Structure formats: C-alpha cells, structure tokens
C-alpha cells in the first residue's frame, strides 16, 4: 500500500510540474509575439512589407540589430507556444475535446513551421548586412521562398496560425473552461491579423496574450484543486486495512 501511495504522490508531483510549466508558457509565449509584432510595426514604415524579398532586405538593412532580436523573440514564442497549447488543450478535453484537439494540433504544426521560417530570416539579415538590397540578393531570396517545400511550410503556418488559433479559441468558448471573453480574446488574433494591418496585429497579439493568461491562471487553479484533493485522500489510502489472509 505504501508503494501505491508513493506512486500516487510521484504522479501528482509530475502532473503539477507539467501544469505549472504549461501555465508559465501560456503567460510568456504570447507576449513574445506582442513584442515581435510591435517591433515589426515600428520598423516597417512607408508601407514596407517583409513578406516580399525586397521588403525583407530593406527592413533588415535599415534595422539589422532590431531585426535579429525581434526574430529571436518570435522564435522563443514559437518554442514556448507548444507547451502553452498543450495546456490549453488539457482544459477543453471534456467540454470541446475534438475541437480543441484539431485546433491545438494545427497550431503546434503551424508554429513549428514558423520557427523554421524565422530561422531562415537570419540569412536575409546576413545578406542585408553584406551588400544590402541588390538584384542578386533579391533573386536569391525569391528562389528560396518560391521553392515548393518552402511554400508548403508557409501554408502550414498560415493554416495553424489562422485556422488553428480560431478553433482553439472557439473550443475555449464552447467548453466554458474559462470566461467566454477570454476565448474571444484568443479568437481576436486571427481576425485582426487578417483585417487590422500592422497595428491590428499588435492589438490582436495583445488580446491573445490576455486570453492565454486567463487560460494559464485557470490551469494553475485546476492544479491547486487537484493537489488539495490528492493531499486529502492520500492519508486515507495510507491507513487502509490490510487484506485478510487466505
């Protein structure tokens, strides 16, 4: 019986560590994208667009150091978003399990692809720092982004970023695991990303960060409730009477 109690205690600690880690990721990851989107809005004046080869080179040539750190912030957000999404999925596994699963898987796949796209951006910065915006550099980047593999990765990111985030936010709303407004705040990101322009993206990212913070807080509350239940029942298990001898 003591072995069972020890195993239950170990499982409880593992579950608590996982939930705390996921909650911290929910608090931090979205703000990485707020920083990245805010920096992008501030360093992309005069209608420059970093989704084109020439625009990306011009931005990197003008703000190389800022571009490096903003790219790093977005990459950190991609890594932390994986445990963050897993934590959000665990909250909706009862009320909207299928919707949460589809949205969560799409988000994780999309942001893994986004991490690869961001890493490729350091090559753009290097080209901008060594030669600037030249016809050859533009041609190199055009060849890179027009490859079928790159297009597939980019489309996967778009699917996860827009559709995945929308579905996960909808799952949060339908499951009632968090206040309805928190799920709608998560949904605001894909909507404003499409319709709001650069500053709409900043607002959408901030709203998503607030929504995910509520999810993280709810996850910690669920963990505290689970820990209280485990500690209350553990003594009973430890004093259970032994089985009668045959």
Name the beta content range. under 5%
- Computed CA radius of gyration, to the nearest angstrom: 23 Å
What does the largest sheet look like?
Answer: none
The class by helix and strand makeup works out as mainly alpha
Helix and strand pattern: HHHHHHHH
Shape: elongated
Give the mean pLDDT. Answer: 86
Helicity level, as a percent range?
Answer: over 70%
Distance between the termini: 18 Å
Task: Tell me the number of strands.
Answer: 0
Low-confidence stretches: 229-246
Count, helices: 8
Q: What does this protein look like?
A:
- The protein has 246 residues and is an all-alpha fold.
- Helices cover 85% and strands 0% of the residues.
- It is built from eight helices and no strands.
- It has helices at residues 2-43, 53-62, 64-91, 97-129, 135-145, 148-175, 180-195, 197-238.
- Helix 6 (148-175) runs antiparallel to helix 7.
- The two termini are 18 Å apart.
Short summary:
Helices cover 85% and strands 0% of the residues. The protein has helices spanning 2-43, 53-62, 64-91, 97-129, 135-145, 148-175, 180-195, 197-238. The protein is elongated, with a radius of gyration of 23 Å.
